[in-house]
């Protein structure tokens, strides 16, 4: 068996991270969470109090930026310039800042280079928004993982409830729809299905069912 490049794209809340992590584990592949990389750059922007609209300062930041992803038993650890930012990248502040930082051409160019290096020798699962379309258009296996906005909103709602955070279900679904629109309509690397992607609609599927389907497909092409 040879190690393939597996691209997994799709909207927020489709279960991409859970599925990508487990798929990479089962295949013995490297897992690259590209969203975490953009979030790590956003941490640096926040720490240095840079303006995400100031392309010149982002360009300077990217000229010697270092982002590392390290797989551990406890999950993926994320480092920015050698500092562990695993916790910080999930804060609401960074979640809000990341799309602004990810819109910068200099940031996207730097992350593209890094992502291509990480995938260069194959045996890798890359998860994001533009992997099958921009980063690895030649990936041997491409998935577009989706689910209805209602279902993704419901999943998010349940997740928050379990954490003891009270939100309104209808507002949560509306927020998912809003984020879909923003992701699809932006100019820099909009969320788009690759023509040759295998579309997996997980609306009525369990995580295990999705995983089996995807793993079988990858193994058939190895
Ligand atoms: O996937 P995640 O929610 O962690 O991604 C955080 C943000 O990073 C997204 O909202 C998007 O703005 C950006 N992103 C991107 N391109 C990718 C992955 C993430 O622009 N390939």
Automatic annotation (TrEMBL):
SUPFAM superfamilies: P-loop containing nucleoside triphosphate hydrolases. It catalyses: CMP + ATP = CDP + ADP; dCMP + ATP = dCDP + ADP. It is an enzyme of class 2 (transferase). The keyword Nucleotide-binding applies. Keywords: ATP-binding, Cytoplasm, Kinase, Nucleotide-binding, Transferase. CDD domains: CMPK. The keyword Nucleotide-binding applies. Its EC number is 2.7.4.25. Its main location: cytoplasm. One of its GO terms (molecular function) is ATP binding. GO terms for cellular component: cytosol. Residues 6-214 form the Cytidylate kinase domain. It is found in: Cytoplasm. One of its GO terms (biological process) is nucleobase-containing small molecule interconversion. ATP binds at residues 10-18. Coiled coil: none annotated. Belongs to the cytidylate kinase family. Type 1 subfamily. NCBIfam families: cmk. This is Cytidylate kinase. It comes from Pelovirga terrestris. The gene is cmk.
């Amino acid at each position: 068996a040879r190690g393939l490049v597996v691209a997994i794209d799709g909207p927020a809340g489709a279960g991409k991270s859970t599925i990508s992590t487990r798929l990479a584990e089962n295949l013995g592949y490297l897992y690259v969470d590209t969203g975490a990389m953009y979030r790590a750059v956003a941490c640096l922007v926040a720490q240095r109090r840079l303006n995400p609209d100031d392309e010149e300062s982002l360009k300077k930041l990217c000229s010697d930026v270092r982002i590392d992803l390290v797989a551990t038993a406890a999950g993926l650890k994320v480092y920015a310039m050698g500092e562990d930012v695993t916790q910080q990248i999930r804060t609401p502040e960074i979640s809000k800042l990341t799309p602004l930082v990810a819109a910068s051409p200099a940031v996207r160019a730097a992350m593209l280079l890094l992502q291509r290096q990480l995938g260069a020798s194959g045996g890798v699962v890359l998860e994001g928004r533009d992997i099958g379309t921009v980063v690895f258009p030649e990936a041997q296996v491409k998935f577009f993982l989706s689910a209805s906005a209602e279902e993704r909103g419901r999943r998010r709602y349940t997740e928050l409830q379990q954490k003891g955070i009270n939100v309104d279900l209808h507002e949560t679904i509306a927020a998912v729809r809003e984020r879909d629109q923003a992701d699809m309509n932006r100019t820099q690397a909009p969320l788009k299905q690759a023509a040759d992607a295998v579309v997996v609609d997980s609306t009525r599927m369990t995580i295990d069912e999705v995983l089996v389907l995807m793993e079988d497909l990858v193994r058939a092409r190895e």
